[in-house]
TrEMBL record:
It comes from Neolecta irregularis (strain DAH-3). Residues 59-93 are annotated as: Disordered. It catalyses: ATP + H2O = ADP + phosphate + H(+). Residues 74-93 have a biased composition (Basic and acidic residues). Keywords: ATP-binding, Helicase, Hydrolase, Nucleotide-binding, RNA-binding. GO terms for molecular function: ATP binding; hydrolase activity; RNA binding; RNA helicase activity. This is RNA helicase. One of its GO terms (biological process) is snoRNA localization. It is an enzyme of class 3 (hydrolase). Residues 159-344 form the Helicase ATP-binding domain. Belongs to the DEAD box helicase family. DDX52/ROK1 subfamily. Its EC number is 3.6.4.13.
Amino acid sequence: MDILRLLTTGAKFRGDRKFKHDHDVVDGKSSSSHAEISALSSDIKKELDFFHDRPSPVNISAKAKKDKASKKRKIEDDSGEGTHEAYLHDTHEQDHKVLRISAQDLRKINRIKVTGSDPPDPISSFSDLLSRYAVKPFLKQNLQKHNFSTPTPVQMQAIPILLEGRDLMTCAPTGTGKTLAFLVPLLQELMGHKKVGYRAVILSPTRELAKQVMNTASVNLTLKIHNEIKWLSEGRNFKICMLTKATASTQAHDPTARANYDIIVSTPLRLVHELKQGHIKLDSVRHFIFDEADKLFELSFLEQIDEILAACTCQKLQKAMFSATLPSEVERMAKTLMKDPIRVIIGTKDAATNTVEQSIVYTGTEEGKLTAIRQLISSGGIQPPVLIFVQSIDRAKALFTELVYDGINVDVIHGERTKAQRDAVIERFQSGEIWVLICSEILARGIDFKGVAKVINYDCPQTVQSYVHRIGRTGRAGRSGEAVTFVTKADSEHLRSIANVMKQSGCKVSNWMLKLPKPSKNTKKKLKKRPVTREIISTVPKVLQEARAHKKYI
Ligand SMILES: Nc1ncnc2c1ncn2[C@@H]1O[C@H](COP(=O)(O)OP(=O)(O)OP(=O)(O)O)[C@@H](O)[C@H]1O
């Protein structure tokens, strides 16, 4: 028997939940409410509790239990090093218990692994920033105002490292707040410099080069960063140059405006273009952030990264890289650019976020996928908002045509749609007007859609990194999510590595999947160059397909 057939029994769709919750989410009644995060996280295990809404193990320690009346207490520091105050939150913010735990324990509880020379202790609360680093009060106030009460593990460790001026390489799961982890120290540091033009660069990758001149992902990534800078810097006048095709012709060129800007947020291609035109100078840049760093260190970007770094001539250039995946070869390469870097891994390297319930469905054939998705929908197993990933633009269009004919509230985003169309689709998806969004790899990274309930990998991702980033569009900021991956026989080469990711994040996986043979180096190379060839998505007879082709749906 084909072992892949066994996967069919692994199908697990929940039809018991109604749409009400998701309506509330997309209506904004409960989008990213921290009350909800709190409720959800009470169900999750301690190591998954990135957002600390669940009482900490130290909170329920025997010592803490003994002395309930006391607001402030001390826990002996067994390690004898790095003792500091830790705020462990009760459900009511004002009811803090101030405990003393070691840096070691704090790291252990939060699964923070640090290597490198003399790393600073992690912070345990945003208040630590005031007491230890005298950060400007506006940062703490803005965090509070926007309900960010406790740092996530990556923030606990990355913020002090950056505040101490060190270079940093970070790998932390998707949706765990890496953006704030670099923005908080960056804004603090910028407050201390003289305004002399661009002093910080935040680089985000474009999705694909050449053919897909489609910048939705990168534009939205840079937009995400831009938005976070905006609210975090409320009350202060930071000027951000978001380098896109549209803005490049205006703000970046104007020498008076340039002198006032503090931060450039850009993609490598755009920045190199502006450098070559002589429109931008980076000689005052002191801080360099590589967001989605592993993508930026792919071969296709290296030349541009070199050119950009060569333009940053300031002696004191701090570099930091962040990603949810960090392949070893990328890490090796990145290390050569850094000075005595500290390496921070949250949980396990290249792991999926633990807040996503992952499953695999063997569908046999391409046709089987359509049947599976229709079954999923008719059984009430899809709770919006849902993201469906496919392998190519053509497949995105074909699946859209199929699903729209089924009367599903669906739309599609790909490189052949205009920028205005793409922006409109994203806005409608975020507002809840569209329930199901079909997309190519383009939306796999970085995008912080609020409350995506489910990710469906209609086409199996071709690398572990792609899998981790795609499913990371759900289960963000401590919320729970689901991810289903459809596989056919053609995907058998990828199954083992996906099964490993699932196992690492605590999902049930059949042993035989983990025991599948490793693909050879040659096969891996081939797969990298050319993704699996798939049959056309369609259950419609050819005659009808042709008739449809005359109409314009997209
Ligand atoms: N300390 C915090 N408490 C609660 N929510 C937070 C905290 N920090 C960040 N968030 C929220 O978590 C969400 C995910 O953050 P962010 O987009 O920075 O994740 P990420 O780690 O960069 O993910 P990805 O790897 O997918 O890009 C955002 O909505 C952000 O506002």
